[in-house]
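Two proteins were folded this term; both appear here.
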Amino acid sequence: MTSRNFEILYKEARLNLEPSSPSSVVQLRVAPQSAYGRSSSSIANRSSAAAADEKAYRSKNLATASSIYHRKHHKSPRSFLWRVLENGSVLSLRASDVCKHQQHDADAPLIINMQFPSAIHNSCIGFADPKDTDALCVFVIDQSNQLYSITLRPEHFRKKTATEGGLGDACKLYTPPGFSFKHPHRLAVVNSDQLIVAMHDGGILKFDRTKTHDASHGTPWKETIYNVSGWGQSLLGLVPFQRNPIVRYDKINMELTAALSTAVTSMSLPDTAFLFTICVDHRMRVWDVRTGQILYTGDILNNTQRDPQEGLRWNIDPSQANLIRILDTRAPGQCMVATFSPIGAGEFKFWKVKANDQGSIHVADCFPNAHLVPPSPSSIDVWTLADFAVAQTDGVELWTLWKNNTSYRVYRLQLQVKNPSDPFSDGWKTVHIDNSVPAVETSGPWNSVDSTEKWLDLIFTPGRFSKSTLETALAVYEKGLGTYKETTSKAGKSIAESICSILGSTAALSRNSAGVPDYEQFRGTSEIQWIRFWRLLLELDKQRGEALSLVYDSDKGMVWTACADLIAAVRQCSDLDRVYHNLQDPERKDQEVAALVSAGLTFVESFTDSTSQLSKAALRAELYENSPRSDNERMQLFLDRAGFWPQVGDDDVAQVIETLGQNYQMVSSRLYDDLFDLITSTSEANSQELREPFTGFGRKVVVRSVQETVELHWQILFSQLILLVHMEFDIENDDENPLHSRFDVGAVFRRLIDALQRLEHIRWLTKTELSIPASRAIASGAASPVAAKRGQEEIYTMTALEGIAGHLFGLPDNHDEPLLTSITDYVLDICAPGSTTMLQTWLVQCWLLKEDRPDLALELSPFADQDPFSIYIQGRVFLALRDYDAASFHFRRAAIGLSVTLKHSDRHSAGLLDDTEWNLLNSGLPNYYSHIVNLYERHKAYSYVTEFARLALQFVHSSKKDATASIKTEMLSRLFIAATAISQFEQAHSALLAMQDEALQKSYLRKLVEKMCESGQNKALISLPFAGLQSKVDDILLEKCRTTRDVLSSVPYHQILYAWRISHNDYRGGAAVLLDRLQKLRLAGEGDKVGLAGSGEGDALDTQVTRQYLLLINALSCVSPKEAWILEDVVSPEQQEEEQKNTESKGDDLEGTLEELMKKLDASPIQQSAAATTLVSTKPEDDEDADLIAKMRVHSSRASVQDLTPRKLLTLGDLRKQYQTELDRIVAIQNNQFAFTDADGDDLMDMSL
């Protein structure tokens, strides 16, 4: 195809029109009622099921008409993108402002889809901006000739609650009587109270809103019909065989005077409006809207010599809709009109119009002797000029839109108004439209990533394909496989998981003839299926790019191309963009730089896929390593790793030499300086404090532009790095003037590496997409509030760049440049190596950690700096990933730097650190380590809690300052808790002894004792010294023994206390514990569990009770005879029976025991005194016993009247007797000897069987 090569000065950024959140879409049904009624209701969001075929996909997602309307009187929001969907039954509206008018203005993120009962006339959609009301008036005529008047306020685009009950009175319906015998063809809006409809017969129908209209007595609109030839001619046209010549279009006979394209202007005159129409007969007519008179009629090419016999040749096809544009000038009563004639090759004509408010008008040809025939993009293919726009900047600009099926081109021409003899001599400039298919690298053993991962990265690049395109492509692919099922979801799978599942099922790993798994065959089969799916995606996506209209925003200086399922923002090329896109014909000042860029790109294009990937791997190693090597060693290592040297042929070298000269004489340090100047921003826009913030729509424009700029810059600089290394080592002889003899090659190498590192960082931010809950997205400024359904957490999908820096995007308040230039300057500043837009890696990682995405934060670790706070954030990343060793390593590295006090600290962490945590940093090592202890404690990593708690205590000063004391107390507390949790009882014991707070120490002592007892660490408990706390330990164990009911299956506190007391030489105390356990065993009935003699189950006399007697006797035998006594509580038979019941029913019921004790404490003093004085005497057996009894009586006489239970003295002899009695009882039971007693306990008889 022969294409015309125009200089490229602009490029476009294509935006997907998918909402960031499903709740952003508001569905409204517009239903008819009576002729003057009104009806509108909200409907639930329709199913998001994928279209099953291409036809359904086009109907649901591709617009048949689309454009942007800009309001004149109100600014927030000011621009609205409208689209006609679903075969003309849905009109979709959304705000499309790039910048907010004022910083505090709320964003308008909602998309309003209004569903009409009948299909809409695409040419009968109009908008108006009332002067007195901040609203958008929408006027629609459907194919049933109903006129809808809808008033939308800014709240409708901001809050879903504004449309929950439908539009109500904001939507009004009217059935014009004039449509009963005329067919509307085009709607023109004069203002919110006046409409004009061009009819099929050449007449116009004017609608004037009735201000004081009552729906029950009148109509909302006053209709007035005006005709080209008056009423008589109009009525004559209704008579058969008396009609004027007609043109058949869309089943309607259209008169030659029917208007195909219209434009309305007031030319800044009050209470005046003029309607300009381009008609089928190739004439322009100017109507006075007030009177309905035609003020001017003339050929749109000013062809006054047209042969009447060639009338049909000059008739315009009624499908043409964009034939006239009006450029209002500042002078009242004047304007410039541009008309286009589609006849033949097409030609433009410019008219200067003057008028007054009296109804007179003068139309003059601006360039009567000049012919402007716009060149088509290709001389072979058929291209159609689909739309054009006229703008006033430094001069008059003409923008044109050309179409060829789904392809389009946009051109711009600067008119030389001061040179009427040759006004079009400036030449056409063009917009670069990237229709190239993304390159797909082949898969092979050299790939560092899996083939599936490679395809997923390519397909799911943010902004490349819409979700509906992916779902439809997958459905069509499944149909081809014969596995498609009509379901609205894939069992809860994401679209990526569904694609992998379906495509993965088409390839199976088989074995080759040798019986070995054939991985090559599997890889090849899988690759074929991915390529097939990829091509299907491209075919569907191509339809989304069909251009529908070209829009110029005169207020902001911005050009838009509205497509079927895209919106393309045209922006100015940067300096490097202009060099790259015009390499074949660069400007004179850029010829050497263009040669260097061209040589690098050509050199790298000769690489094979494997060589290219190895070179990129070598670059990644260079970007991520902090190498101590010299520049020459780094370049040599890069060359060895890349391994492209053997792949470079003589032809490749010769081509570079031909471009750069022998021995690369053109290459110099100045040339590289010129290259770096092209990627360095000269604008100070991003350094201004006061900004005009971008809207959510504008942020998408910026992110998409950054994506494209990063890819272009990376491609150029990567090729320059390869070329520089090649040229440096290609010349080995110093006599041939190598590069390092001319300039510092190492400095250029470092600059290239630094620039590529910045680009790699930005590329990661623009390619990484994540889903964020609405609450956090709104709080960060990356999204606007949208009410979701009750009980649902709404999710926003955005790139990492938009999420972390979206709230910082904006322009200076005093910028005077057009928006298409300002966006380029802003984007260039983001990508420049010395950018004022600081995207610190640690800040991005903080934000990702806040969003609970430590996996993504880890991917940024190679870009992290080595300052203390960055190292600390790396530790936080590993901590979130539960790699506690790596986290500990980074926390230790950052300790010194984050403990030093700073005068001015920057407290920015994307909400990761609160004020309390910030206060612990840069305030000494104890505070820093205490902060780390808190972090590990949240993750319950107690071994690291103990580690850093010990470090914090190590640096706590011995001063008695409150701050130091509180830190020490806190760290001891955390050390104790952590050590106890991981059973490091020696550390817990040490922390316990170091505590100064007695209450806290007592509480933790109880926890330690209980923990060790419950975990079976009895031996360790006994071995711990508990200096100064032994009595407290004894009290704790004694309390646990008293409250323990079930002494067999519960924690053996009695044995532990016995061992504790024995280890501390308190044999009588140990015996007392054993006696308490003995009593509880007998109450539990353990003494009656006697084995049968001769059963082979052991000694029948060996029971729990007898064993306990032996231990008790043994303990008392270890003391002197005079000290071999203990006291036993005397329990009455009633109390014993009650105790036994409690034991059987409650077991170890601590609450029940406490309740009983409270009752005893509440007993009357008389009862307590009586109980206290009741002592049981024992008969002395010898003098020693008598002495013991005397001592006991003295001791009992001193007993407090508050004792709850009577007690008696038990000596060693008493215990031995009881033991013998227990043995005799067991023997009697074994011999079946039972004693019968009466109620008083007297023996009646003994029976032996």
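Next, the second protein.
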Amino acid sequence: MVRMGPDVPLLNEYKQEFFWKRFPQTVLGGPRFKLGYCAPPYVYVNQVVLFLTPWLLGGIGTLLCQLQLLEDLHAAMLSGLLMLGAAVGVQALALYATRRNGMVERLGVPNILADEEEVEFTHCVGPETVRFIAPGKRFGLNVVLHTVLAGAICGLGTWYVLLGRLTALYGSVGVALVVFVLSWVTLCTAEYSLIVNTATETATFQAQDTYEITPLTRPLYILTFIAVDLADRFTGPVPELQLTSQVLHVVFLVLPLLWALGMLSPLDALLLWGMEQALVFGLGGSPMSSNLRLLGMFAMSVCVPVCTFFIPSTLGVVLFLMAMGFLLSLDLSQFGTYCGGGSRGAHGDSGWRRGASPAPPSWRLGCSELLLYLGLLLGAMTEAGLLHHFLSPSQPQNLAWGSQAAVSYLLIVLFIVCWALREIQGTYVFGGVFLNPLYPRGMANVRVFKQRSRGLHVAGAIRRVLLNLVSPFAMIAFLALDGSVQQLHTASLSVGFTRAFRVVWQSSEDALLQMVVVVSVRLAAGDTRLPGWDSLGTGVQLLLVGLLSDRLLQFLSKLKFALAVLVTSWTEKKQRRQSAGTLLALNASLCPLLLSVVASAQLAWARGHRLPLSRLHLLPADSGSLACALRSAFARGSLGALTPGSHFLGRFQDRVVWIMILERGYGYCTVNIKGLELQETSCHTVEARRVDEVFEGAFERPERLGLNQGINLHWGNALTPCAALPVRVYSDARNVLSGIIDSHDNLRKLQDDFLKALVWLLLRNCVQRRKAFPWGTDEGTGGGGRKSQSPQLGQSTVTQPAEAVMVESNISSLRFRRDSSSLTSFGDWSDDDDLFGPQPARRTVALVSTEAQLGHTVLQTGPSLPGSVEMDSLFENMALQPLQPLGLGLGLPAVDKGRNPEVPPTESSGTLVHENFSCPHSELFSLPSGWRTAPLLPSRLQQLRPLFPEEWFRFTLGRLALAVQDEASEDVAKALKEDGGLRDLHAQVALSCLISLGAESAFTSPSYVYRVYCGDVPWTEGLKWLSENKELYQLALKAFRYSFKLLFDQASLGPMESLEELFSTLEEYERDWYIGLVAERGWQDGVLQEKPFLFSLGHDLTMGTYTGRVLSLQEQLVQVGRLNGEGVRGQWANLSWELLYATNDDEERYSIQAHPIMLRNLTVQAADPPLGYPIYSSVPLHLPCF
């Protein structure tokens, strides 16, 4: 990615013109007064007339009211009816234009280079003009709804801004006139967007407005303002309500500016955001991980204060609130899973993986959890009932005495202890400013790190008990002993205590802080009574403290983010612009205004923390172990206070993982894990290097880094390190194989190792077919195959591994690529081929075909020459031998029958070696008849017979026979070793495979080895026979890959010293390794199944070298830090505006350039698609953290 200079504009030049066309449309509600081409004047005149129509029609009613010809209500009704008629006319014209355009289509040559579609206008009311100005609605219901709503808005708006009303509010005719004129501008923008043409809003929640919800956004806000005014009109003289109406009339004037700046939520997001805010701050709940969960939880939570209001007994109220607060704070979806029969099923497991890997540690519900919850619920209800019945006062008392005093002091002690125990769990204390001297540093060994962390784990366990068991019961005692519970039959106290009893369980740490603040205020007041504060009641006091504390934390986080942007605009050279000094001086001089803007942002809407529903969820196995580590860290408090919307970043080697808290409840936490791109771009490298520096300053020894003062030098960074978590992850090691794969000695040794590996696999496959192999068939394979159905091969029944992976190769399984001219050879030719160098493998991606599940395996073929006829597809059931006498050899090499009297064996002529076994147990190790019909001359096989490893065959046969037979195993093994017929049979099959792979003499070059390893086997004489025996082909390919791994190991560690060592090594390959290609499905399955080791051979075309890649599953320390949540949401909001509104999707745009402090490039990647581009994302994971 190209580094951008400091003075690059925020929008590219070709997008600036587009932006200045769209932004005036947004401000005015939809009129398009600036086009990229010439348009007749009547196009602009028509838009002006339609824009001012509501003002003209409303002015008629206002004039008649001012002349006292009509009352204000009748004048408003008249204006509304007139606007209704005008809206009907506009919709009728739009419908007529739509039908007319459907019947008559104008032919023309479109300009594909134009930024927007050019319209040819023919008449001021022509179909093209009407269609351009008023496109119309897509749904008939919206036509009716929007038309009626337009009349209502005009009528109520006329009543809202009548001059008499405005004069009465402000007592000045001049002010009333100004408000009247500007208010009608607001009304006109809303009416135009509703009826004529909808403006593109800057605040966009959905990428597409499918159901035409956007036109309703502006009228909804106008109706809200009018509703407050109507309440002031009909409720009598209420000073507070009259003041609110005066303020809202002024705010009404700037609504177009607020809509244009995106400070007001669109309608679809407003409903969800409002429910979330009411659930969290009004009812004590938590943000939900999905919209469906939010709707369900909000509906259940609203019923609680309603029922509380009508319960006559205060004891019944306390018990009811106690029970409902506890139950609603749990993950209720697990109760449905448990009742449905899946008591141990993890929520969301279906989206975790598509393989057979073990499920992640999601939140589960079983009998033990039910008993624990039941015990906690009964204990809490008993405590609350007894304390309220016997010790609760009838009136609120001072905390200096009474039954609440001891509980209040206990809450203060619990808060201090829990806070201190949480602080020492992380690498920094006091908000990330100072290094924690108790945290172990400078240790790469996981075992040593765990030993040094035992003290912190003990402290975390104590905190867990205090926070999850002791604190809730102490807070319940405080609420049950409160005197304001006696006054519950008011709406405010019902809502307040509903929230108080709920938040005790939903977020115990936050509830403890809020109660300590309330207690501290009461203790500070002493005997002095605070009339305004004390009259609210404890429940409402806790509600206000919770709201203020949340907004205060948001303010501080936003202020830190704003200061980081300002300071780095000067300190970071890559971010410094020519106007940076002027901007800094201006912000310093207008510091109060800057603070007011940041403070006002607390009232603006923000996107929720829920994930979109239409997502593809994929997750590698590493994240399952990461979820286990996160569960322990959440329980100990190593990552600080967990609040929904918190973001964390994990770093290990070259991998970056993004963790987001979606939901928080009693004993569980819902997270989303994303993986960011692994390709190292320049921007990615700059930010990743700064992330490494931040983590090194926190987790390395301070004396090595010169940080003797113990202060976090990266405090201003968006990332604050928290803890290092032991996680089972794959360590990635890559090696250049120069000197190994190109060594002639190693290539000669590869032939012998291939035969040994193939013999071992053939014998093991024989035993495995009889279902008597001690290792079992559920461990998977490490090479190319897995368990599948059992196709019939000859006279023997062969059981292939399940989900057999067939490697799509360039061997001509259905059409051979011969050295001579052949039409089918063009199907494998490409312009990218290197005719003079190593041939890279093409189309070697491992495929899992649908037929594999049904017991069939199909070798995929490459593309053929366009226009050619595939002989195999036409004559797949015909033998081609009768065509030979006619001279139709189809490009096959000629055979001199006089010089070669021997005829190669075929399936019709019989086998080369018959089953003349001297041992009755040899049938166990017999091979299918189809494997013995290689079209090779017997003399050719006889010449290669010395290559067959007979000593290794006897050793392997003896070991496997001992593993199978239970009685007389020694005699049976001896008899099997002496059976010459069995030995000849395996020798024939092994040598036939050797010839078919082209290794008759030796493997000649690294490129040949690489192609065979990838399954891209060049044509040989027996290749067709081998490809037709699909299971044997898989075993041969697997044996070759095993032999190459043996070559790699022996070149690195030394040669094998004994046959026993070789046997154990092959056993280890089969059990603990996957040896194949990264692009194969088997590699993905191996990762999901958590194979301990994975090996792959690669070819770097740019460097011309061959590489070996080894993944090792081991426990390593993954460093995790907390990100500035407001900074993340701010950058995501800018990303949404830039892509959805400004449509600035340039890959080199300014907003995705590297910013080492804000981590802008990483943050953009982690956004939800289509805005971001994470390489994988998990479903919401419910992790237990009790």
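The chain has a mean pLDDT of 79. The longest strand covers residues 1105-1123. These notes refer to the second protein only.
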